């Protein structure tokens, strides 16, 4: 055929365009006269995607739960590293004697959170660029999809058959996702083993090794996260929301585990060992859950429908190796959403955790465990992550403002005020900026809740809008592009966090 196939409706759309809805439009007179009576006996091709014509149910919400677990696993490494503050202070302190708290300060420990943020976000940008190339040049296609698409290719045009055939030579996203999870698991196993290793004589080497591990884990996590966001773009919006909500729950779980380890007491290394073993077990659970995903009817349906669709912009004579969806149509539709995601996470990582975790209780010198032990883990980590989770969950019921509303970027810009609010709390130590305007413990509680709620809600809306405002064949690539904007915001914000800490 020489005519161009019309654009396909988005899988999550609540409407079907008239072009697809009315398949019984009258034909021209010339075509009607030449119409053969036997032609009515042949099966009619429907240009409506399978995902639009038939929607199976998610039995027991298993697919939703799996994507929720994948969301937890995508940010679990980062959250487990940043919330183990007491362990890092112990490992990087000038004195490993736990009874002498006042001497447990060093340049390595004072700026560890800022260096950790840089080490985790800068490599992520490169990995997401790689992931975009892998997604576009090596699209999704499971073995089951190849078999069914090959079977149906006899009813397609020759161009469609060629495009289906070349899918055999392309890499499945299973390799990207499973290999990323295995790398994360390996690094966490090494981190768990090092818990019981005495590094008092080589703290700087341990510091460099830890940051290197964080860089590797962060790159693998973003390759994993970007691939999962791309896959979720083929599903209804509730699945994307489950993935994003799971990311917030990962922070809440890690903060809770950290607080429990503090409450149990005992040796710092024993608590850290149990803490990191929890992460090891959960990563194994993520691997098992992902292997289960293709066996579920609901997920197999949407992944099959996505893999059987060929991009409309591809010419018949174009080679398979050059099938790269261009960035221009993606950015044309989603550039405002991408910049919104960038700025939301730029502001968040600027103050969390480098600044927020340094805010101490004004009554820290008292013997109250709340002010001396639990204030920072609860106010900085638990409250922020719990509020972030609530903000992300709220998008399941309320999605206002819409993807084209100017109110969305305006609200995102309003979050800029969070930076000075945190700077003028009781951050310690203060070497340059000695003014403390918010000298009560209630202020960091309120500010962390506002930061988490706004991050969860305003960060989630653009992420789930992005893959839905582009043609269906660009949904996965758009998901990766949105993840790129997110990670770029984290990278730039982490650099600014170092500057903010030095200014204070």
Automatic annotation (TrEMBL):
<feature type="transmembrane region" description="Helical">
    <location>
        <begin position="115"/>
        <end position="133"/>
    </location>
</feature>
<dbReference type="GO" id="GO:0005794">
    <property type="term" value="C:Golgi apparatus"/>
</dbReference>
<feature type="transmembrane region" description="Helical">
    <location>
        <begin position="207"/>
        <end position="231"/>
    </location>
</feature>
<feature type="transmembrane region" description="Helical">
    <location>
        <begin position="445"/>
        <end position="465"/>
    </location>
</feature>
<feature type="transmembrane region" description="Helical">
    <location>
        <begin position="334"/>
        <end position="355"/>
    </location>
</feature>
<dbReference type="GO" id="GO:0005337">
    <property type="term" value="F:nucleoside transmembrane transporter activity"/>
</dbReference>
<dbReference type="InterPro" id="IPR002259">
    <property type="entry name" value="Eqnu_transpt"/>
</dbReference>
<feature type="transmembrane region" description="Helical">
    <location>
        <begin position="243"/>
        <end position="266"/>
    </location>
</feature>
<feature type="transmembrane region" description="Helical">
    <location>
        <begin position="477"/>
        <end position="501"/>
    </location>
</feature>
<protein>
    <submittedName>
        <fullName>(Atlantic silverside) hypothetical protein</fullName>
    </submittedName>
</protein>
<comment type="similarity">
    <text>Belongs to the SLC29A/ENT transporter (TC 2.A.57) family.</text>
</comment>
<keyword id="KW-0812">Transmembrane</keyword>
<feature type="transmembrane region" description="Helical">
    <location>
        <begin position="272"/>
        <end position="293"/>
    </location>
</feature>
<keyword id="KW-0472">Membrane</keyword>
<dbReference type="Pfam" id="PF01733">
    <property type="entry name" value="Nucleoside_tran"/>
</dbReference>
<dbReference type="GO" id="GO:0005886">
    <property type="term" value="C:plasma membrane"/>
</dbReference>
<keyword id="KW-1133">Transmembrane helix</keyword>
<feature type="transmembrane region" description="Helical">
    <location>
        <begin position="62"/>
        <end position="82"/>
    </location>
</feature>
<feature type="transmembrane region" description="Helical">
    <location>
        <begin position="177"/>
        <end position="195"/>
    </location>
</feature>
<keyword id="KW-0813">Transport</keyword>
